[in-house]
Every structure is written in structure tokens, then in C-alpha cells.
Amino acid sequence: MQTQLSRRSFLQLTAGTMTVAFIAACAPATPGQPGSSGAAPAAAPITLNVWWLEGPIWEAMAKAYDESNENVTVNATVIGDIVFGDQKYMTAVAAGTGPDAAVQNRHTFLQFSAKGLFQDVTPWMDSSGIKQADFTPVQLAESTWDGKVYGLPLFTDVRYLFWNTEHFEEVGLDPTKPPTTWQELEAYTEKLNKKTGDKIDRYGFVPYLWGNSWMWLYGFLNKAPAISDDKRTILVDDPKWVETMQWMVDFYDKYVGDFEMTNAFSQSITSSGLADPFHAGKSSMSATGDWTVGELLRIPDIKWDAAPMPIPSGGEQSTWSCGYSIVMAPNTKNPEAAWDLMKWTATEPGWEARADATLVDVEAAWAREQIEGEPQFWPTQACYIPALTMLEEKYVSKLGEREQRTWKMGIDALENWTHGCGTEMGVAALEYWVEIDNAARAALAHKMSPEDAMLNCKTKVQEATDRAWAAIDKKA
Amino acid sequence: MSANTPARPWYRTLRGREAISFYLFLLPWMIGFLIFTLGPIIVSFVLSFTDYDIMLPPSFVGIENFRELFTDPLFYTSMYNTVYIVVFAVPLGMIVAFGLALLLNQRVRFMAAYRTAYFIPSIVPAVASAALWLYLLQPQWGPVNALLDSIGITGPGWLSSELWSKPAIIMLMVWGTGGTMIIYLAGLQDIPQSLYEAAEIDGANGWHKFWRVTLPLMTPSIFFTLVLGIIATFQIFAQIFVLTDGMGGPQNSTLVYMIYLYRNGFNFFRMGYASAMAWVLFVIILMLTWLQFKGARRWVYYESESAEG
Fold first, then answer.
1. What is the distance between the alpha carbons of residues A199 and A184, in angstroms, rounded to a whole number?
2. Residue B52: closest C-alpha in chain A
3. Which residues from chain B sit within 8 angstroms of residue A115, using beta carbons?
4. Residue B254, phi then psi, degrees to nearest 5
5. A78 near A51, Cβ under 8 Å?
6. Torsion-angle region of residue B251: left (phi > 0), alpha (psi -120 to 50) or beta?
7. A46-157+323-360, what's its fold?
8. E strands in A259-397
9. How far is CA B17 from CA A26, B5, B12, B14, in A?
């Protein structure tokens, strides 16, 4: 038999339930979720909210930091894909729910620091004995805005020419002598292209589309200026850029062939798990980053070597570097703890923890992929010079002569001949990146002449840069 | 005291109490609607007249955003790409769905299984289906090109080809046409058998039955799916974002309106401009919907209306 609720009791019951549910849903976040910070008094344990990259290496680093610091627990969250700027970080900081510290890319560093998304860490740096001169110069420069340091550069990379020594021998080239000029590069490519009839089976060299060079590498080699010193004028319509672009278009026309097919070819290789057609033996030379050494060490079938990129006549030895820095968010409630973590991560302790964890990861990969020989660990380049020295002494010294030579080349590049992506792109970094890529594709597909493509790029990026500067000047 | 004047306050009358319950039950939804839907709509409208980069407070710029929008070549490119996809994907999707619905309306064994199979693609989440199609459309060793190869056609580069990237997107959308199919199925089952019997008596063959009975009585469902299809397809975003890494495809060939809007808002931090874009799209879709409703009177036949002639 059903009991009848009177209308009044029914309404009261409903109202009561909804109120309880409403309160439960709006309860303050439990400690440990992004957005809440630990209790304030110094002696009480602090939970530091850190947004950084994912994977066992980073988890091991978080654990190592926890163990070395009894007062602080790292609550790490994955920051996601931040190569082209970070919407997650930006919107969280704007809403006041940002983390204490985060990893950020250096392309968009200037753009973000100008907006006040990072906190100035110069006072902490000065008082903690970390010297600015101990960081690689280019990377520190692109973490600096208006004379103040806004983050500690963590890691970086450089780009070289890699080549397949077996392919060289096959076509009668000396495997120890890479091309050193753009003319030699063209001649070598022609020799190395393996064709059946009109179709290319194995590419000698595919600049720009394959590997990791983008247009920047070739522009810098050709001494093309990207931006004025005061970072207000975009210089991508400079004749040197047009010359570079023209060379690229001609190279494709003569030695590579159809732009769309080459693009499709590389897409398919990338998504089937192999990093680069070079790794699959489908191209004989590749302009790509130093991290490739680590990947190639796992593919013993590929016999390779590396050297600085060939230089055009009138050009200069050059490469470019990118990477991540660690920053402090502006509305953090634990600045000292955040600074301590930043310092730890960017200097020797963090790098040692990272190297130890990566070594474990490499050994696991060796076992899993059943690669012959001893696991070989190629470290990522640090931006802190004492850490770089530590990595060289402890880990690179265990590798072969070729790897040690390549490492030393990297150090030389970082200190003397690299360009920083953040420095060269200015305050509208993302727009610059997208537009120069569009310009290159338009020129290569013969939709626009190189002059028009570069001029179009300049117009768009200049507009974006002017707008960004207007906002910065207004804020100042 | 007249009979119409209550002796007690309004909230104690039956009607009053019912009104209070009504509004109380409505309240949770109303609060959610105001805070999460209507509020942002109003804010977005206001923002479309400002320059807002999130970090600094918005600054009023009048109709500058709109003026810039109409001289922005990418506005026209993205609009062209979107319209191209709508013009092909919506009718194709409807035709395929209609055909499937006709097939699935038979009394055949395991019909439930067939219906489920055709419906499942439409409930796969957008990102997952995009990732799936990324694999399917691989030019070198994806199944689609392998299939074409087996009948002697060299498949194009699909997502890396300027010409074929939009057709690839259209394929993806037609593949997900299960929802429309279910609506048509319901519509087909609503058609009274007596009409078919009457037609047969009058000597109608299969084609006549389809053209004179099925199709006219399906026009309400067709109209419904047409309107909703156009509204939804104009706003396509997630699949294309995943397929092209947010870049809008080779040479901006898959830069649809919403991708361009996202780029302006979240990559370039121009929230005011992006809001202006959103409102322009709203007006365009509104006009198209109004036009469709106006035209509906000519071809949509509602059975409940009295027949004329």
C-alpha cells in the first residue's frame, strides 16, 4: 500500500534534497586539486601545484624532489601540448586559478611575459647565488623581458645535418665528407636520389618538409634577419629571405618533385610510429634536431654521422634552438617554495634526477625493443652550463666517438652560433610561426612567388606584432 | 465582498501555490541557463565591440572588429570552406540516411543489429572518430587508398592535399549520419499502412508509392533534419581540429569558420574579434533558418493540415 505524501511534505522534501545537493556540489575543493594552495604558515607542509610534462621521467623527478624536501609535496599535473602557446595556463592564470610553477615553451615566452603571465624571478635569482652567466646565453636572453628574468631555461636543442653513411658509400661519395655548401648539398642530393623511372624511391634530401628545420634554419644560414633589435619590426620580406625561399622552391623543383606527394609521404611515416623518413632509410640526409641521436642509437641498422649544416655563399654557420623554461605563476601563494623547485629543476640536482630516470627509461626501451648491445643514453641539452658539464662527464663520455663529437658540436653551437626561436620571433610568435609556414607552403606549391609569399607573411605578422606592442605599451 | 476577491493572499490560493511550485521546479535549470548560457551570450555580444586579450580589461572599439572582419581575406576563405562543406555534407548525409532508413524499415531478421551497426558511427565521440579517420585516410598505407588501389585508382593525399581535404571531411560527416537515419526511420514508421494499400488499389507501383506517399509524408522529417543539419554543420570544429592539428589543413583548405574563430580567440588572444566572428555566424545561420522556414510552406506537407484540392 502506498503512503501518500501531502503536497507540502513533498515540496519540503524536494527543497531539502536540492539544498543539500547544492551545498555538496559547491563545497570548497579538497587540497591537492589544481587551483587550491596549501595552508599559509611556513612550518606547515606545502603542496606545490606544478604543471609540467607527462611520463615516468617527470614523475620520477617529482618524487626525487619530494624526497629531498620534507616540507613540500609536489602535486604535478600534465600541462598538455604547449608547443604553440598554452591556452590552459593562460586562462587559468587570468582566472586566478593558476598553478605555482609551470613549464612553458620559449617561442611564446616574450609574448606571455609581456602580458604579465609569468612572475619576475630576478630578485630570487640574485639572492640565491644562481648566476645569470651560468646559463647558455641565447636561452637566458629569450627568458628575459625588459631586463628582468621571467623563468629559468630548462632544456634546449640544436639542429644539424645528419646523413646516412651507407647511402653515401653506395653512390661513391666519401662517407666522412658531408656537403659544406648549398651547391655541394644540391650535387650530393642529385647523386643520392634513387629513382625508378620518374618516381623517387629514396630521397637524397628533403629540406623544410622533413626533419625538423622549418624555414628558420635556412634563413639563418643565409644571414636573413627575422626581426629588428627592438623587436618591433618584422624583417621577413628582406631580400635574403626571398633568396632563401627561392632557393628552396628551386631545390624542390629540381630534386624533390611534387610538394603534395612529399608531404603525404612524410605524414604517413610519422603516424606509423617512425619519427622521420631518415630513420626508415627513405632519405639519405636530414636536417633535424640533436635529439635524433638518441633515436638513431636505437636503430643500429642506420649508419649515420652528423655535422653542422652546409652554408650558402655569403652565409654563416648557424642553427636554431627551442625548448622549455620553468616559470612561476603570478598569483602563486608559495613563491619561495615555487622558486626552490624551479632552481632544483633547472640546475644539477634536477638534471641528475632527470638523467637517472631517463636512463631507467632507456634501459626499459632497449629490453622492450630487443636492441642489441648496451643501452645508450643520449641526454637532452640542459641550459645550465654546470649541468651540461655534468651530463658530458657522467653520460656522454660513455658513448662512442661520434656521439661525443656531436655533443661537443652542440655545446659549441649553444655558446657561439645558435639563434633562439623565442628571440627571433618577437611578441607575435605564434602568428610568425604560422604565417611563415603558410608562406613556405604557398611558394613551394607555386601558388605565390617567393617575394609575394614573404611580403604577405610580413604584412600579417607585422599587424599582429603592432597590435601586441600596442597592448604592451598601454599596460606599461 | 464580491465572489471574485479571495479572502487570503495570492500565494495561498491554489493557483498561487501551483505557480510557486512551477517556478521552484524551474529554478535549477533557470539558474544554470542564466549563468552558463544566457550570461555568456550577453557577455560575448558586449565583447564583440571591444578589444580583449584576457590579461588586460576589455577596451571599447566600437564596430572596428566587424569592419576588420569584412576586410579579412581569411574570413571569406573560412566562410567559403564552411559553405562548401555544408553544401555537400548536408544533402549527401540526408540522402544516404534516407536510403539507409528505407532499407532498414523492412521486416528482416536481425534488423535491430543492422540498425545498431549503422547508428554507432554517429555516437562515436568527435575526437575519436577524427583520430580513426586520420588513420583511414593515410595516403600511403591507409585502408581507403588501399581499397582504391585494389580497383586500380591511385588515391590522392586526402588530408595533405589541398583539393581533397574537404572531400575527406565530407566523407567523415556522411559516415556519421546515423542520427539522421534514426529520425527518418521513425518518420517512415509513422506513415499509415492504409495509404500504401489505397495506393496499391489505385494501381501504384513501387516508384509511385515512394514518390507520392512516402516522400510527401516524410517532408516534415526532412525539413527538420535539413534545418538542424545546416545549423550544426556550419559550426563544425572538433573533427577538423583533430584532423589538421588546429592548423586548418594544407594551405587553409580546411580552415572552417569555427577553427578560424578559435585561432583568433585562443591562439592570438583576440577575444573581442572572435566574439564578433561568433555573432556574424549567428546572424548568418539565423537568416538561413528563416529563409528555410519561409520556403517550407511550399514543400513541407503536414498530415494534420487539411488537404487542399
1. 23
2. A471
3. 53, 55-56, 269
4. -115, 25
5. yes
6. left
7. D-Maltodextrin-Binding Protein; domain 2 (3.40.190)
8. 283-289, 304-307, 319-321, 323-328, 381-382
9. 29, 17, 6, 5
- Distance CA(B76)–CA(B80), nearest Å, equals 6
Q: Name the pLDDT band for B25 (thresholds 50, 70, 90).
A: very high
Read off the C-alpha cell for A411: 655545446
The pLDDT of residue B235 is above 50: yes
**Complex ipTM:** 0.72
**Is A345 in contact with A153 (CB distance < 8 Å)?**
no
CATH of B64-299, one of 1.10.3720.10, 3.10.310.10, 1.10.1040.10, 3.40.50.1820: 1.10.3720.10
**C-alpha cell of B25?**
521546479
Task: For residue A73, give the C-alpha cell.
Answer: 609535496
Write out chain A residues lying below 8 Å of B21, CB-based.
Answer: 11
In angstroms, the first-to-last Cα distance of chain B is: 58
Instruction: Residue A209: list chain B partners with CB under 8 A.
Output: none
pLDDT of residue A33: 42
For A205-242, b where at least 16 C-beta lie within 10 A, e where not — what string?
Answer: bbbbbbbbbbbbbbbbbbbbbbbeeebeebbbbbebbb
* Chain segment A361-384, per-residue pLDDT in tens: 888 888 888 888 888 889 999 999
**What class is the A159-321+384-475 domain?**
alpha beta
